[in-house]
Amino acid sequence: MHGELNLLHPIAPQQSDTLxxxxxxxxxxxxxxxxxxxxxxxxxxxxxxxxxxxxxxxALKRWEALGIILRxxxxxxxxxxxxxxxDSFLSLRFKNDSATMLHALEVRRIIExxxxxxxxxxxxxxxxxxxxxxxxxxxxxxxxxxxAGAEDWQFHAAIYTAAHNPLLxxxxxGIYDLLHAFFESPPEQALFSDSFPLHRTLFEAIARxxxxxxxxxxxxxxxxxxxxxxxxxxxxx
Length: 237
Description:
Structural class: mainly alpha
Largest sheet: 2 strands, antiparallel
Number of helices: 9
Strand order of the largest sheet: 1-2
Distance between the termini: 33 Å
Low-confidence stretches: none
Radius of gyration: 20 Å
Number of strands: 2
Mean pLDDT: 84
Order of helices and strands: HHHEEHHHHHH
Strand content: under 5%
């Protein structure tokens, strides 16, 4: 029934659900599945990608939330929105929910700029060592593969922790899922490259106990992030 399943190829099991969805995007586009048609069962997709059914299930939940698929209990999963070979989860997210993505970034800006300023005042010496460690990891990965979305998030989370207000990290964590695809965009998207050197400058401002400089640098980084987002939105239209 699904002769196109040879289009599915195993991916490394540690890869994120974002990359699982990119693999599914390629499958849907290459198989010629049309809007309204049924996708293969989760079991078949999981076998083709060599990942767990739960991994596929969680990835499909993201598509469902965006209205890309419709899952009918007892009937299966049906394609609801056109998917092309040039799409990625990131571009599909922007096509379907760009306003929410920009709103989430706005909330992140409001919280993060102040969190960076607080970290410059409140960070302990061990906090600073931890932030610098996360920065070193982010820089190493970025220079090695050209992108470090997950490591970038860990660096910023370390700054939130150093602000010593646990609600700040909880609040921004609540919108992390909305920005998940953007943080984990693949290297070929070439995002964050312009803001990359500003991250060490931000750390240095925090280490020097300069809250106003830290606040300004956080805002500068997020200005670049917003610019990159809008470029992806325009390209996805």
